[in-house]
Known about the structure:
Blueprint: H1 3-10, E1 28-31, E2 34-37, H2 60-82, E3 88-99, H3 107-122, E4 129-135, E5 144-152
Parallel strand pairs: 3-4
Antiparallel strand pairs: 1-2, 2-5, 3-5
Helix pairs in contact: 2-3
Amino acid sequence: MSAVEAKLGELGLTLPAVATPAGSYVPAVRSGRYVYTAGQVPLVDGKLPLTGKVGAEGTPEQANELARGCALNALAAVKSVAGDLDRIARVVKVVGFVASVPEFTGQPQVINGASDLLGAVLGERGRHARSAVGVAVLPLDAPVEVEIQVELADD
């Protein structure tokens, strides 16, 4: 077990299986030392725990927790092409999308769920640049979607 997965265990989390793509794409791609994930929705055992928009069907607190799940799914996607999460030199960028009602402006606080999880699991290597964007709707009517880009340590 990798040190990253051991840290997940200390936090009461386990790395999920990589989600099956819902379209014509792959969960993650490695290009040189970088891994780019597809957008990850907060699937748990193949199902969304909540659907709809933040500010209507879901609260910002619920969405923050779902963003943590997105980050966990993104780490699983990274592992699928990197082989070992201990190879992560740093998380370079996080992009988070929040399906929200028009007047909702708390997208950064929602995506903090993903950022905080990456920081808790990877420490300084988990600090990253980030975008948090409000959108009208996401695939499967998910409230949140997160993609990450990581740099791997030398082979």
